[in-house]
């Protein structure tokens, strides 16, 4: 697996522009350690920084690609994890994407229209289905979570986002400026693709 300073840089592949605090929220490392690691990455030419935020450079991505080969060799050769990823891509990932679209739009005379969330019963049913998919996701990715505990952190963040949505904060399903289900799911998906050496499906 990755060393902590390598994981800090890896986090910038999951969120393209992040402060040390935001990166630490994703990877679970102490914020001070993340800041030190990212400053080191800047010095090495693997990241750039401006106004307290960091972004990975092409050299940083190339550096990580080289590290992944050895760091994730066991994961990439595990047949059970390979099967889990197939189930993830063809099952729960497509379901979450479909539910996100359903959450964002409603059909008005055959025309997709932005959902104003005035139909609380409809929203509640979508959230219930989304909750069941997230619960299934934990089971689907269990083999990978055994090898990489960060998966449990992603699952907990997804549950937290869903709870806030159920409490009436509708932007926590698909909002891009908050730790929404959509945002966390995108980060988790990118993370597991990098672990397993797969390409994001078109």
What descriptive keywords fit this protein?
202 residues, mainly alpha, Arc Repressor Mutant, subunit A, 2 domains, three-stranded antiparallel sheet, two-stranded antiparallel sheet, 5 strands, 68% helix
Helix and strand pattern = HEHHEEHHHEEHHHHH
Oligomer status: single chain
Task: State the major sheet.
Answer: 3 strands, antiparallel
Percent range for β-strand residues: 5-15%
Neighbour order of strands in the largest sheet: 1-3-2
Rg, alpha carbons: 18 Å
| Low-confidence runs | none
Organism: Actinomycetospora aurantiaca
Protein name: MarR family transcriptional regulator
Structure characterization notes:
The protein is mainly α and 202 residues long. The chain has two domains: 4-71, Winged helix-like DNA-binding domain superfamily/Winged helix DNA-binding domain (Arc Repressor Mutant, subunit A, Orthogonal Bundle); 73-196. It is built from eleven helices and five strands, in the order αβααββαααββααααα. The chain has a three-stranded antiparallel beta sheet with strand order 1-3-2. It has a two-stranded antiparallel ribbon with strand order 4-5. The longest helix is centred in the middle third of the chain and has 26 residues, at 79-104.
């Amino acid at each position: 697996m990755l060393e902590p300073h390598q994981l800090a840089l890896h986090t910038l592949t999951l969120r393209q522009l992040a402060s040390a605090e935001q990166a630490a929220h994703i990877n679970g490392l102490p914020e001070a350690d993340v800041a030190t690691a990212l400053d080191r990455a800047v010095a090495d030419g693997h990241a750039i920084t401006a106004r307290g935020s960091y972004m990975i450079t092409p050299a940083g991505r190339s550096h990580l690609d080289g590290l992944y080969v050895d760091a994730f060799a066991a994961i990439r050769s595990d047949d059970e994890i390979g099967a889990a990823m197939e189930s993830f891509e063809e099952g729960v990932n497509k379901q979450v994407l479909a539910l996100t679209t359903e959450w964002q739009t409603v059909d008005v005379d055959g025309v997709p229209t932005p959902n104003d969330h005035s139909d609380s019963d409809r929203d509640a049913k979508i959230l219930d289905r989304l909750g069941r998919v997230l619960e299934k996701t934990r089971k689907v990715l269990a083999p990978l979570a055994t090898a990489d505990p960060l998966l449990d952190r992603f699952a907990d963040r997804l549950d937290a986002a869903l709870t806030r949505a159920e409490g009436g904060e509708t932007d926590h399903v698909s909002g891009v400026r908050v730790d929404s289900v959509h945002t966390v799911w995108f980060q988790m998906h990118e993370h597991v693709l990098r672990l397993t050496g797969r390409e994001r499906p078109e």
